[in-house]
Amino acid sequence: MKQEKNMVSVLFMLFSILFCVCLIAANVLETKQISVFNISLTGGLIVFPVSYIINDCVCEVWGYQKARLLIWTGFLMNFFFVTMGAICDAIPGAPYWTNDAGFHAIFGLAPRIAAASFIAFLSGSFVNAYVMSRMKLRDRGRHFSARAIWSTVFGESIDSIIFFPLALGGVVPWAELPKLMLWQVVLKTVYEIIALPLTIRVVGYLKQHEGEDTYDEGISYNVWKIFNLKNNG
């Protein structure tokens, strides 16, 4: 029985794969600057908020402890991808290769930006999962929409507060950073709200299919207990 509690379902595995793909895709798409309603943003905005939606679904259905495993898995897979890209970028191109500049623009992530991205992702994702978990306990499972939105607001705020000063401080004028950070949080939260009807349906299906609706009673929120998946509630 103890062994079963430390196993994950096929659907959780599929959500984990999608989570990792979203993070890796966001890294690649971040290299393009886009304009939405005359607001300058990065292409990562298209896919990165999906990772927060997946985080919400996993935390709501399987609980914080499975969300913790999901976050660390996503981090490690993303780190592996970025590291392999950096190694390949550092290796001299073949004599006939003429696209060094284009490849470097995508995979030659500056160490400062890479470090800021990793720290911001971990911090924002864990705050998102923690807020989801605590609000569910407080509300006894009611008001899913409210906790999905508020967890995104808190998680994305922490992500932006960490990422922009660490990655772009001194590069982008300091006076411009608060506006960039605010727009990121607002637009990603709007993204969450637009996707909310679909998220609610997905969560409902998962709870019915998995027969799970976890309440994180008496668990440890220690982010380092990666493989502790047993729920004490």
UniProtKB/TrEMBL annotation:
* Membrane topology reported for the UniProt record: Multi-pass membrane protein
List all membrane-crossing ranges: 7-29, 35-54, 75-97, 109-132, 153-175, 181-200
- List the keywords (alphabetical): Cell membrane, Membrane, Transmembrane, Transmembrane helix, Transport
Under InterPro entries, the record lists: YhhQ
Superkingdom in the source lineage: Bacteria
GO cellular component: a single term: plasma membrane
Q: Where in the cell is it found?
A: Cell membrane
| Predominant place of localization | membrane
Keyword Plastid listed: no
Give the molecular function GO annotations: transmembrane transporter activity
PANTHER family, from UniProt? Answer: QUEUOSINE PRECURSOR TRANSPORTER-RELATED
Q: What does this protein do?
A: Involved in the import of queuosine (Q) precursors, required for Q precursor salvage.
Q: Which family does it belong to?
A: Belongs to the vitamin uptake transporter (VUT/ECF) (TC 2.A.88) family. Q precursor transporter subfamily.
Protein name, per record: Probable queuosine precursor transporter
Question: From what organism does this protein derive?
Answer: Segatella oulorum F0390
